[in-house]
Write a structure and sequence with these properties.
The complex is a heterodimer.
Chain A: E1 4-14, E2 21-31, H1 36-50, E3 72-73, E4 76-77, E5 99-103, E6 112-114, E7 117-118, H2 121-130, H3 150-160, H4 167-171, H5 178-189, H6 198-211, H7 222-226, H8 234-253
Parallel strand pairs in A: 1-5
Antiparallel strand pairs in A: 1-2, 3-4, 3-5, 6-7
Chain B: H1 15-22, H2 28-31, E1 35-39, H3 43-55, E2 58-62, E3 80-81, H4 93-103, H5 110-130, E4 155-156, H6 162-180, E5 183-186, E6 189-197, E7 200-208, E8 214-218, E9 221-224, H7 245-252, E10 257-258, E11 263-269, E12 292-296, E13 313-314, H8 316-320, H9 330-342, E14 354-357, H10 359-365, H11 367-385, E15 394-403, E16 406-407, E17 420-422, H12 440-462, H13 473-492, H14 498-513, H15 519-539, H16 551-575, H17 599-602, E18 604-609, E19 618-623
The chains are: A alpha+beta, B alpha+beta.
Chain lengths: ~260, ~625
């Protein structure tokens, strides 16, 4: 069996959106095979037994795919390991005696709900604005009627791998949602099925992103580093290109196209 | 309780077409007058919500997650079956139907399964149109792979993230409707009761998980797409939040529960590493396309896998089931792993593991090909175990994964409670006693995109539904019951955490109602579960308050339901004195250890009817008539 680690956690506690928050210290005992969230589970069991309020944090699948878990761990979204979500981070990435700082995502567009839980509904509203292909049920041709070059399908899949966790926003000094938005623009825009709505999609989604209070993109690239699914900032370049083309297209046609759904 | 499956007459291949022609329609102008509540936003719920809204109905959709995109369908890895026969390998609607019936060990309804196979092809078309980036070959056409229980390649996939991509497709269709104002979405809301007015489901009571507010929502029909109950075992591959609460509370309001003991233990999961373990992680069945399963031939062989020569390995699936080999169905593969470990030949800590070895495939195809096929799964394995599966074989062990049982539904997907429809894993329908790999995604989307949108219209058009709103006394009463349960949980203030009860329940269920069951064990479980339940209600500690985000309270409500539901599962397992699919009663096996079915007595769906807190539930039977398929002993040898 592996050796026991004794850790000190400094955890952000906040009773509600409008309540003041503060860091509180908790001792934690772990071993290398535990996941980070299992380590927190053990802390919470202890807090409950002592009559304290357990630490609220978001999590669900614990397989790195649902995008529910979050956490800034020592200042890095999802902790120190590249391309890994918090739920799949294991304690072998830490050592005995470590102090670990745990905070929620911090962004105006992601208000804190309680402790480490934030509200990411803004992402859903960006998708509502245009992150889809309008294909009502029953109206589709045979799946093989649309041939898609393998490389295009692969690039689309690379972008579609986004789990919507919000690490990109948390990592960005401007709290921009550009990588999230660009991943969707690229996922759909790289496919032939996504062409009819391509311009309208990018205009609407960028407009929605701005409305939600996310900051602008200034090409720091922190988002790409933080992304547990390694979504590339090349997608942002693609979004910018589409956005310019859609905007210029509007001017040339003389029609002022507002962000419509 | 009257069980009328409403299976249309006529030849198997014409039943669905004929039925669609017979179903009543709601005119476009009238659709907007009907309000439908959908609980759950996974593949079934999201696809139904989007499709019904596109048709013009008013839809409200509820999920406990913070976004509909996070429903647990997202974690499905390997793929989705469809009888496209794109590979020209002899697939057909009939073959998919037959594989599914046989895979389910002849405990599913023929008509439902045939319809599922029929609409499977529409699902692929629909998903492609939505922009699901399925794997493709260099010619740009869709690629396929093989899954357990089939000898054709009919599984469509998007790397190891097929569930994610299909759910994102459905989620985007749903978000589009939300944006258009046709669906009202309630995230972080948990359904805690179904409201019945004049014998019909007319709404639900929910708790807002952020504010703690309990509220009522009235509708003309209610649809549950709330998933399975695998977490009754505490450790499973399900998401932590997956629960039986919505289905169980519907059962308490009069919906019959079908075959609750039919649970699927998936053969390829990462073994348990310690008592802090919070969940188990699946390694997709698709890995068995290229991985070979083995254990050492000798008992207690603790050599490193690379030091065990070929001649001293037992590739037991290839040995026992030569025609399907490593692609034997899940129930059979899981039991074979358990037998090897029970025999003292398991590997890894505690001897509860078998190897899944890619050395031969890497030698044949190269590491790059294996990485392209399964890269994300290999990464996940390495991340969890700290071992490199390209160099050393994976260690795997069976884990609870899926529940074939669920609320009983008729051919129209309506439960025994009129107006309450149940879709996806939450219903009992199409998988019999064992689900084949890549068929859950197929069923969830079939129900949501292509079945319910037709059948619910027939109910709405053909039923007299008086105007009812949330001020009706039935809603007030249900709300009061929900509040009182919450208050009770918070007031106990005992000494044990919610999770400690859940773990103890899970251990009982795994030991006595898991991969192998027997009469004595089930009877013991039926003694211990009520004792544990009584202790829970005396000694659980739920910290915090009701009027706030309180994750302990959420879990407490779910565990309270599991503590009742577990008993129902054990009762069902005890009465079914045969072995079939995932239900293996050790008393009923063939001399070579295979499941021994009893078609004379048990060729039926067991449907349980709630009789109140202090009375035993009543068991009803829906006979399964096999008109088109010959009942046979399942063989994969």
């Amino acid at each position: 069996m592996s050796e026991t680690m004794n850790l000190t956690l400094k955890v952000w506690r906040q009773a509600g959106p409008d309540a003041p928050g503060e860091f509180r210290s908790y001792p934690a005992v772990a071993n290398e095979h535990m996941s980070f969230l299992e380590m927190l589970d053990v802390v919470n069991e202890g807090l409950t037994e002592q009559g304290d309020d357990p630490i609220a944090f978001d999590h669900d699948c614990r397989e790195g795919i649902c995008g529910t878990c979050s956490l800034m761990i020592n200042g890095t979204p999802h902790g120190p390991k590249r391309a890994v979500t918090t739920c799949q981070l294991h304690m072998r990435s830490f050592k005995d005696g470590d102090e670990i700082l745990i905070e929620p995502w911090r962004a105006n567009a992601f208000p804190v709900v309680r402790d480490l839980v934030v509200d990411r509904a803004a992402f859903d509203r960006i998708i509502q604005a245009g992150g889809f292909i309008s294909a009502p049920t029953g109206s589709s041709p045979d799946g093989n009627a649309i041939q898609i070059p393998k490389d295009d399908a692969e690039r689309s899949m690379d972008a579609a791998a986004c789990i919507g966790c919000g690490a990109c926003v948390a990592a960005c000094p401007n709290a921009s949602a550009m990588l999230f938005t660009a991943a969707k623009v690229a996922h759909l825009g790289l496919l032939p099925q996504g062409q009819p709505e391509r311009e309208r999609r990018v205009l609407s989604m960028v407009h929605a992103m701005d409305e939600e209070g996310f900051g602008g993109c200034t090409n720091f690239g922190e988002c790409q580093e933080a992304c547990p699914k390694e979504i590339s900032i090349d997608n942002i370049a693609l979004l910018n290109r589409d956005f310019v083309r859609a905007t210029l297209g509007d001017r040339e046609s003389g029609v002022r196209r507002t962000a419509v759904m | 309780m009257h069980l009328d499956a409403k299976i249309p007459a006529g030849p198997l291949e014409d039943k669905w077409d004929q039925h669609r022609a017979d179903l009543k329609l709601v005119s476009p102008a009238n659709k907007r007058k009907f309000h439908i509540i959908i609980v759950g936003s996974g593949l079934a719920g999201a696809s139904a919500a989007a499709s019904l809204a596109e048709l013009g109905y008013q839809v409200s959709c509820f999920c406990f997650q913070d976004s509909p995109r996070r429903a647990h369908s997202i974690a499905a890895q390997g793929g989705i079956n469809a009888a496209k026969n794109y590979q020209n390998d002899g697939d057909s609607t009939w073959r998919l139907f037959h594989d599914t019936i046989k895979g389910g060990d002849f405990r599913a309804r023929e008509a439902n399964v045939y319809r599922l196979a029929q609409v499977s092809t529409n699902i692929i078309d629909q998903c492609v149109a939505q922009g699901v980036p399925f794997a493709r070959d260099y010619g740009g056409l869709l690629a396929n792979r093989s899954f357990g229980g089939a000898q054709v390649s009919r599984t469509f996939y998007a790397r190891g993230q097929t569930g994610q991509q299909l759910l994102i497709g459905a989620y985007q269709a749903l978000e589009r409707q939300i944006g258009l104002g046709t669906v009202k979405m309630y995230t972080r809301h948990e359904m805690l009761d179904v409201v019945v007015v004049d014998g019909k489901a007319r709404g639900i009571v929910v708790r807002d998980l952020v504010s703690g507010e309990v509220s009522s929502h009235a509708a003309h029909a209610v649809v549950l797409g709330t998933g399975g109950y695998g977490n009754v075992f505490y450790l499973s591959t399900n998401a932590k939040g997956s629960n039986v609460t919505a289905a169980y509370r519907a059962y308490k309001r009069g919906a019959g529960f079908g075959n609750p003991c039919f649970t699927q233990i998936h053969p390829t999961c990462i073994p348990v590493s310690g008592d802090y373990q919070s969940k188990l992680t699946l390694m997709s069945e698709s890995l068995r396309n290229d991985g070979r399963v083995w254990v050492p031939l000798k008992q207690g062989d603790h050599r490193a896998p690379g030091d065990i020569p070929e001649a001293e390995r037992d590739y037991y699936l290839e040995r026992k089931y030569p025609s399907y080999g490593n692609l034997a169905p899940r129930d059979i593969s899981s039991r074979a792993a358990k037998e090897a470990c029970d025999d003292g030949r398991g590997v890894g800590p505690g001897g509860r593991g078998v190897y899944l070895d890619f050395a031969a495939a890497i030698a044949r195809l190269g590491e790059d090909t294996i990485r392209e096929r399964y890269g994300n799964l290999f990464d996940m394995y390495a991340q969890i175990t700290g071992e490199n599966p390209y160099r050393t074989p994976m260690r795997i062990y069976p884990a609870v994964h899926y529940t074939m049982g669920g609320l009983w539904v008729d051919y129209n997907l309506m439960s025994t409670l009129p107006g309450l429809h149940v879709i996806g894993e939450a219903n009992f329908s199409d998988h019999g006693a064992n689900r084949l790999g890549a068929s859950a995604l197929m069923q969830g989307l079939a129900d949501g995109y292509f079945v319910l949108p037709y059948t619910i219209g027939d109910y709405l058009a053909g039923t007299k539904l008086d105007a009812v709103d949330a001020s009706h006394p039935a809603f007030r009463e249900a709300e009061a019951e929900v509040r009182s349960m919450t208050d009770r949980l918070l007031a106990i203030n005992g000494t044990r955490t919610v999770d400690s009860f859940h773990r103890e329940l899970g251990q009982i269920m795994w030991d006595k109602c898991g991969m192998a069951r027997d009469k004595a064990g089930l009877e013991e479980a039926l003694r211990r579960i009520p004792e544990l339940r009584a202790e829970f209600w005396k000694n659980v500690r739920v910290p915090g308050a009701g009027a706030t985000l309180n994750q302990s309270l959420e879990r407490a409500g779910r565990v309270a339901d599991y503590l009742e539901f577990a008993e129902l599962m054990c009762r069902d397992a005890l009465v079914r004195e045969e072995s079939c699919g995932g239900h293996f009663r050790t008393e009923y096996q063939t001399p070579d250890g295979e499941a021994l079915r009893n078609d004379e007595t048990y060729s039926h769906v067991a449907v349980w009817e709630y009789q109140g807190a202090d009375a035993a539930p009543v068991r009803h039977e829906e006979a399964l008539d096999f008109e088109f398929v010959k009942l046979a002993t399942r063989s994969y040898k």
